[in-house]
Design goal:
It is a single chain. The chain is an alpha+beta fold. It has a single domain, classed as Roll (Pnp Oxidase, Chain A), CATH 2.30.110.10. About 30% of the residues lie in helices and about 35% in strands. It contains six helices and nine strands. It is globular and about 60 Å long. The protein starts with a helix and ends with a strand.
């Protein structure tokens, strides 16, 4: 057994930065999320916009990956990716997914579950146009999630599409946005002695019901 493996069970941290009460939290989970994300950005935590996306394939095996949130409003949480990637294929077969934000420095976690739908072509076009040129070329160059023999494939593809499209690459038909429409949110705030605060919001008959869960 390695030294790291033998010592990992000894790692401890006492969570004492803040608390999350029903009185202080917003009755609307989107507003609560907006507050926490704003605070994470203001605190300059590393990549506050990073979130883990969990999907389940037709083989019932779950998979996760870290992606970046690109927008949110009353309709849901938005990100952009290759529709032909593993996550795209899994969402095509099972449109339910989960998202998780972990702001370590603030001792906070937000979990979001719901149904996923594609954004409109107009929304995807508008966002694609704001991306840096190399990112727009990269969307064409990378056959995401497919096996490739070497990095040379990516470099060659990038050079080919760069020469083809120059400064104005259009949005690839296999690339665009997804929106997760939440039906459940959870907000977790670390507390001392592992007695953490954990509030769940569940959509019932069009209304958000807030409940406290044992940590």
């Amino acid at each position: 057994m390695s030294t790291t493996s033998s010592r990992i069970a000894e790692l401890r941290k006492s969570y004492e930065r803040a608390e999350l009460s029903e009185e202080a939290s917003n009755a609307d989970p989107l507003q609560q999320f907006d507050r926490w994300l704003t605070e994470a950005i203001s605190a300059e935590v590393p990549e506050p916009n990073a979130m883990t996306l969990a999907t389940v394939g037709s083989d019932l095996r779950p998979s996760t990956r870290v992606i970046l949130i690109k927008g949110y409003d009353e309709r849901g949480i938005v990100w952009y990716t290759n529709y032909e990637s593993r996550k795209g294929q899994e969402l095509a077969g099972n449109p339910y997914a989960a998202l998780q934000f972990h702001w370590v420095e603030l001792e906070r976690v937000v979990r979001i579950e719901g149904r996923v739908e594609k954004t409109s072509a107009a929304e995807s076009d508008a966002y694609f146009a704001t991306r840096p040129l190399d990112s727009r070329i990269g969307a064409w160059a990378s056959p995401q999630s497919q096996v490739i023999p070497s990095r040379t494939v990516l470099v060659t593809n990038a050079a080919r599409y760069g020469a083809q499209f120059m400064l104005n690459p259009p949005r690839p038909p296999h690339w665009g946005g997804y929106r997760l429409v939440p039906d459940q949110w959870q907000f977790w705030q670390g507390r001392k002695s592992r007695l953490h605060d954990r509030l769940r919001y569940t959509l019932r008959n069009g209304e958000w019901v807030r409940e406290r869960l044992a940590p």
